[in-house]
Amino acid sequence: MDLALLRRLTSGEGWGLLQSLPPYEPGSELRLQQRLRDAGFEADLVAAALSQSQLRARAQAKFGPFAQGMLFTPDGLEQATRLEVAAQHANRFRTGGIHTVYDLGCGIGADAMAMAGLDLRVRALDADEVTAAIAAANLRHWPESTARQGRAEDFVPPAGEGARGVGAWLDPARRTPGVADITGRTKRVFRLSAISPSWETLQQVARALPATGAKLSPAFPHAALPDGCEAQWTSYDGEVLECAVWWGPLVRTPGRTAALLGRGRAPLVVTERDMEGPAPSAPSLASLGPWLYEPDRAVLRAGLVGVVTSATDGHELDSGVGYVSAQRLADVPCARRYAVVEAMPFNVKALRGWLRDHGVDRLTIKKRGVSVDADQLRRQLRLPPKGHTEAVVVISRVRSQQVALVVQPA
Q1: How far apart (Å, rounded) are the C-alpha atoms in residues 282 and 289?
Q2: Which of 13, 47, 76, 261 is deepest in the core (most CB within 10 A)?
Q3: Quick check: helix, strand or coil at residue 85?
Q4: Average pLDDT over the chain, rounded to whole?
């Protein structure tokens, strides 16, 4: 969609058309498209409106009912911050005493909307003119906030008294323009050196405006965190979405933290202060306890497995695998608990025999720290196609040796 078509869609006849569309139903597009064209609407306007209807339906998962009043691009929706996470970002600025935020690389404006919704004044920029115009449309309910085309690299921060109460938020592009992955989506980049604007530009902005935050990949390297800053890995329903780095008054706990969000649960924050030290490794397979704990992925990304070993007096199966074995039963909000039914060296034939002898015919395979293909293993185990006895098998390692743990959720 070019800028001229977007302007037609967001005014007069186009906006009325978009707002009058019925809820999106897969498979009904061609019939609806023909009906609208027969009613006299131009083909390109109909196509743009139907595309927005489809994107709004997809956006329900991230934005709930707010999606019905928003505009999107496919890549913009894919990269947009989830509403609940954007609210956490905005709250940092609000409680940090900030009144104006420069959103540099605003995308479709998800974070800008959350900030404006907390009465912060937003000055949003995006390098792409269509994306910036979409962000401006999404900010239409907050006349004090604006979005326009502009590059983060060209941003000149206010100085002196003009910088008081002013902060910056950056969401660098982490995709390769014009290069698609196997799903057809723009290919992601994970190296800190490949983001745009660059990591150096982010740090320059933070030096000029100490109240700065940046949304980065969950692959953010721990060693890159500047002194005094906070890197917070955030998960939603167990899926790690981002690592946000915070400077200055936006820092709540210096160092590495993990924020666990999800439907129907209060946010939980885990910090380095919650662990007594690095996670110790299990001395042997025979020493494993009757309980296995699986930390949330944000905890794993943040390198905070020691929080779980401290809470359980347990041991990580092996350095870097994340799973924690313990003798003690404990409630650990940042980890899922399993009861260990069997622990054995990993051997396909032995595991197949154990599952057969115990009547297991439905299996969930988890693996970490080993080069085992779960689909191939499932075929090798030759379980009956249907059944009623279910188990979970964790394939990991202890002292660099592959092990198989049969566990049950507890």
Answers
A1: 10
A2: 76
A3: helix
A4: 94
